[in-house]
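Reproducibility note. Readers wishing to regenerate the assembly model reported in the main text can use the exact inputs given here. Chain order matters: entities are listed in the order in which they were concatenated for prediction.
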Amino acid sequence: MSAVFSCREAAKLASQAQDRVLPMRQHMALRMHTMMCAACRAYERQIIFIDTVFRLRAQHGTADLPTSAGLDAAARERIRARLTQDQ
Amino acid sequence: MSASPEPMPAATNPNQWVDTYADSLFRYALTRLRRREDAEDAVQETLLAALQAQRAFRGDSSELTWLMGILRHKIVDRIRLAARDTAVEPLPAGEVDEWCGRFDHWLHPPKSWSGDPTKLSEDAEFWQQVRKCFGALPERQAQIFALRTFDALEAEDICKQTGISATNLWVLLHRARMRLRGCLEKSWFTSEPTP
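Running the prediction on these inputs yields the following structure tokens for the assembly.
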């Protein structure tokens, strides 16, 4: 890993760190970078924040986003008919 | 169906499924598939599959959880089929690059966000905004991000189930997070009164 380590690269690794254990060199490079770079430090906190807030919503029992749309009457009827037919 | 030790609405009559569960299943499907017709189809496929597999329902989860599990499999199947045809979506044309300069610095450096994730996770207004940002993601990014967060699947399991390679998965999640944070920073975190 070169000494010049861009924010673009750091952002990529910060995301990967949420999904796997980074290889040691990349892990070190990311930590070095975020120690010195406030923007990337903020970025890393932000993406952890977003992942967390989604997980929390699901833990409260809502694994979906708010929508005004429900299943409409026609679709409901169609599905009901299919189910009856298959029983 | 054998007696369940827990008092739960186990093994209800399939005739009641549509009334009891269809709306929850539909919302779950619509969040991930976006198109009404696709979501309706997925709900129907789910209930038909459940009908076939009714005996397999042992009552060790709630009936809704069981149905959601079937639905999630249906959605993962769709992702797998779609992923076979195309590699990672190219960056949409005209997307503004986040980077500038010879050293790839941030064009708009991320700011520090105030707010408590636990409180926000129950804030209806916040989720209205998230819905807009999430809706602006390319479809596959949105689907994968939902599997990783809402469904709390491990990255490895997502790869196994969808057939997407680890490298592609990381790219998709990275892009999803990058866009979500950009959108939320603009629309929620900077319009809030900050101390």
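We highlight two features of this model. Chain B has a mean pLDDT of 86. Chain B touches chain A through 61 residues (CB under 8 Å).
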